[in-house]
# Entry
Amino acid sequence: MNGFKGKKIGLALGGGAVLGAAHIGVLKALKENDVNIACIAGTSVGAFIGAFFAFGVEWDEIDRIARNLKWLDVSRMSISQYGLLSNSKLGDLLIEHVGDVSFDQAVIPLAMVAADISTGEKVVIREGSISSAAMASSCIPGIFVPVEMNGRLLVDGGIVENVPISPLQEMKVDLIIAVDLNSGLREERPGNIVEVLLRSFNFMLASATRLQIEGADILIQPDLSAFNMYDMDQSGNLFEAGYLEAMKMLKEVM
# Structure
């Protein structure tokens, strides 16, 4: 592939709740175009998908897992003053498929972005438990209970860097492929408190994301305006949208 040969390529997978199924389509396109990823950074659902990929799970198996998921599979009711739900089942799902592993065991070097809800600081996680880190990075404030790691109370990294390009720059990559899931949002009236919180969170991220993605060499922004952020039955169509947009962008640099 022109422009890719001999380069250390980093992949940044952004947040977007259920829209993350589009990331799996991107992984398929990368595989079909023989793009070898040297390191990965993920925020929120991007951290979750990135964890599977970094531990050698192929796109088709990740797709199978995603298509069988329901909200009850990744969350449980929580009796807490900090959130409505716990996303501990998400951590359990990773342990089920890749094991109770740590960052130093990854096949591909991996970083995840979370936010310290006490200080507002960006926290780039590169060591420790993969499942705990993925839970922290995808812990949408108000919906999920924050995750405590190393004395910090952590929430969704989208607050500080929704498309995690800076961790890849720190890893000294030659070229960054970034996937932004938030370039469009379906206009619809929310039906419950979870949908209200998800949409509010997404609106908050939109303007900041536009600045973050300027560091990408190749930016993949599938049009996901026909989808919402909470219906897991959309996985197949989201996968296709991510795949087609990635194929289009990759062909432009071949």
